[in-house]
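job 3f2a | input accepted
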Amino acid sequence: MYLIGWIWLAFSALVAGFSFVSGPIMFSVCRALQGIGPALLLPNAMAIVGRTYPVGLKRNIVFSLFGACGPTGFFFGALFSALIAQLACTAAAPRPAPASR
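job 3f2a | predicted structure (101 res):
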Protein backbone atom coordinates (compact mmCIF):
# COMPACT_ATOMS: atom_id res chain seq x y z
CA MET A 1 0.00 0.00 0.00
CA TYR A 2 2.91 2.31 0.66
CA LEU A 3 4.13 2.16 -2.93
CA ILE A 4 0.57 2.40 -4.24
CA GLY A 5 0.21 5.64 -2.27
CA TRP A 6 3.37 7.08 -3.85
CA ILE A 7 2.30 6.01 -7.33
CA TRP A 8 -1.18 7.48 -6.84
CA LEU A 9 0.31 10.75 -5.57
CA ALA A 10 2.75 11.01 -8.49
CA PHE A 11 0.15 10.20 -11.14
CA SER A 12 -2.50 12.50 -9.69
CA ALA A 13 0.03 15.34 -9.36
CA LEU A 14 0.91 14.89 -13.01
CA VAL A 15 -2.76 14.95 -14.04
CA ALA A 16 -3.44 17.99 -11.81
CA GLY A 17 -0.48 19.80 -13.33
CA PHE A 18 -1.91 19.46 -16.83
CA SER A 19 -5.56 19.96 -15.84
CA PHE A 20 -5.36 23.75 -15.52
CA VAL A 21 -6.21 24.07 -19.22
CA SER A 22 -9.51 22.24 -18.64
CA GLY A 23 -10.78 24.77 -16.13
CA PRO A 24 -10.97 25.29 -12.38
CA ILE A 25 -13.47 22.50 -11.74
CA MET A 26 -11.26 19.83 -13.30
CA PHE A 27 -8.27 21.22 -11.41
CA SER A 28 -10.18 21.10 -8.10
CA VAL A 29 -11.31 17.52 -8.76
CA CYS A 30 -7.74 16.47 -9.58
CA ARG A 31 -6.44 18.14 -6.42
CA ALA A 32 -9.11 16.35 -4.38
CA LEU A 33 -8.10 13.02 -5.91
CA GLN A 34 -4.47 13.89 -5.18
CA GLY A 35 -5.27 13.74 -1.46
CA ILE A 36 -5.90 10.00 -1.67
CA GLY A 37 -2.15 9.37 -2.09
CA PRO A 38 -1.10 10.86 1.26
CA ALA A 39 -4.14 9.24 2.87
CA LEU A 40 -2.70 5.88 1.79
CA LEU A 41 0.84 6.85 2.78
CA LEU A 42 0.35 8.13 6.31
CA PRO A 43 -0.91 5.00 8.10
CA ASN A 44 1.65 2.85 6.32
CA ALA A 45 4.48 5.23 7.16
CA MET A 46 3.40 5.17 10.81
CA ALA A 47 3.43 1.37 10.70
CA ILE A 48 6.94 1.37 9.22
CA VAL A 49 8.17 3.71 11.95
CA GLY A 50 6.43 1.60 14.60
CA ARG A 51 8.06 -1.60 13.36
CA THR A 52 11.51 -0.07 12.87
CA TYR A 53 12.13 1.32 16.36
CA PRO A 54 11.82 -0.73 19.54
CA VAL A 55 9.54 0.40 22.35
CA GLY A 56 11.26 3.11 24.35
CA LEU A 57 12.40 6.70 24.33
CA LYS A 58 13.79 6.69 20.78
CA ARG A 59 10.49 5.43 19.37
CA ASN A 60 8.57 8.09 21.28
CA ILE A 61 10.87 10.81 19.94
CA VAL A 62 10.50 9.55 16.37
CA PHE A 63 6.70 9.47 16.65
CA SER A 64 6.75 12.99 18.10
CA LEU A 65 8.92 14.29 15.27
CA PHE A 66 6.72 12.51 12.72
CA GLY A 67 3.66 14.19 14.19
CA ALA A 68 5.34 17.60 14.29
CA CYS A 69 6.19 17.54 10.58
CA GLY A 70 2.60 18.26 9.46
CA PRO A 71 2.06 21.54 11.32
CA THR A 72 5.64 22.61 10.62
CA GLY A 73 5.21 22.00 6.90
CA PHE A 74 1.91 23.89 6.94
CA PHE A 75 3.52 26.89 8.64
CA PHE A 76 6.56 27.08 6.37
CA GLY A 77 4.45 26.43 3.26
CA ALA A 78 2.18 29.35 4.14
CA LEU A 79 5.16 31.57 5.02
CA PHE A 80 7.14 30.91 1.85
CA SER A 81 4.11 31.09 -0.44
CA ALA A 82 3.26 34.50 1.03
CA LEU A 83 6.85 35.68 0.57
CA ILE A 84 7.00 34.45 -3.02
CA ALA A 85 3.63 36.05 -3.81
CA GLN A 86 4.79 39.33 -2.30
CA LEU A 87 8.04 39.30 -4.25
CA ALA A 88 6.27 38.36 -7.48
CA CYS A 89 3.74 41.15 -6.95
CA THR A 90 6.39 43.79 -6.34
CA ALA A 91 8.51 42.55 -9.25
CA ALA A 92 5.54 42.70 -11.65
CA ALA A 93 4.33 46.12 -10.48
CA PRO A 94 5.06 48.95 -12.88
CA ARG A 95 7.58 51.47 -11.67
CA PRO A 96 6.92 55.17 -12.05
CA ALA A 97 8.90 57.00 -14.68
CA PRO A 98 11.67 59.22 -13.36
CA ALA A 99 10.76 62.88 -13.10
CA SER A 100 12.34 65.07 -15.77
CA ARG A 101 14.09 68.25 -14.72
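job 3f2a | The chain has a mean pLDDT of 87.
job 3f2a | closed
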